[in-house]
Amino acid sequence: MKIRILHIIAAIILIVSTNTIAREFRVAQIPNGSKFGCLNCHVSSFGGTRNAFGQLVQTKYLTFQGDVVWNAAIAGEDADADGVSNGQELQDPTGAWRVGQANPGVLANVSNPGDRNSKPTSIELDDLKMPTTYSLAQNYPNPFNPTTTISYNLQAASYVTLKVYDVLGGEVATLVDVFQNAGIYNSQFSIRHTNSPRSTRVGAGQLSSGIYFYRLTARSPSAGSGHSFVQTKKMVLTK
Fold first, then answer.
1. How far, in Å, CA of 12 to CA of 36, rounded?
2. Are 150 and 173 in contact (CB under 8 A)?
3. Which of 25, 45, 94, 237 is the most exposed place for a label (fewest CB within 10 A)?
C-alpha cells in the first residue's frame, strides 16, 4: 500500500514538474511573451486554468511536441474577443515573428491576448502600422545601466544586422543577425544578461563605462546588391 502511494505521489510530482517546464518554455514561443509570462495563457501566474488565449493555443496551435505555433493564423485571431487580434496585442499583427528573433514592436504597448480587459489604445494600434521607411531610433534610456532598448523600423523584408562597437571601432556584440520581415523591432542590450540561443539580449558585463556605437544594416533582396540602409548612433554606458 505504501509503495502504491509513493508511486502516485511521484507521478503527480512528475506531471506538475512537466507542466511547469512546458509553460515556461512556451512563454518564449510567442512575441513579447515575457511581459505577462504564464498569464498570457493562464488565469493565474502559477498556471492551472487556461484563459481564452491559452485555450486557443491548446486546441489549435501546438505541435505534436507541445511547442506553440506562432504564425499569421494565430496572430489574426481574437482569442479574448476584445476587438483586437492576438497579433496586435503582442505587437506582431502579421505573425511574422519567429523564436530567436528580436521581439517586435514596443514592449510597453504589449497587452494580454487572453484578458479582455487588457488591450492596446487606438494610438498604440496606430503605431503598429507598417513603417514606410527604414529608421534607427536613439536607444532608451541613454545613458544606460544596466539595460537599454534599441528600436528600428524595416520598410521591407531585409537581411538585418545590429552590432555594438567601442570607440576604437572594435566589435563588442552582435545583437541581431537574421532575415526579418517588414515591421517594427526592438532589441535589448544589458550589462547583466549573458548570451543565450533563445535571446537577443546580449551581455555587456565586461564593458567599461564610456561611449559606444550601435550600427544597423538592412539589405532588402528586392533592392539589389549594394543598396543597403546603414545608420549608426551613439550611446553611453555608465557604471
1. 27
2. no
3. 45
Partnered with residue 185 across adjacent β-strands are 104, 152
Where does residue 161 rank: exposed (0-12), middle (13-18), buried (19+ CB within 10 A)?
A: middle
First to last CA, the chain: 61
Beta-bridge partners for 217:
161, 230
- Four-residue CA torsion sign, 9, 15, 21, 27: negative
Question: What pTM was computed for the model?
Answer: 0.52
Distance CA 14, CA 104 (A): 35
Q: Which domains does the chain have, with CATH numbers?
A: 2-126 (no CATH), 135-237 (2.60.40.2550)
Rounded alpha-carbon distances, angstroms, from residue 42 to 27, 56, 90, 120, 134: 11, 11, 16, 20, 37
State how far Cα 45 lies from the chain centre. 19
For residue range 128-181, list pLDDT tens digits in order: 777 888 999 888 889 998 888 888 888 888 999 999 999 999 999 999 999 888
Q: Which residues contact 196 (CB under 8 A, 6 or more apart)?
A: none
| Cβ neighbours, 10 Å, residue 13 | 10
Tell me the three cell numbers of residue 200: 537577443
Specify which residues 164 forms β-bridges with.
Answer: 173, 214
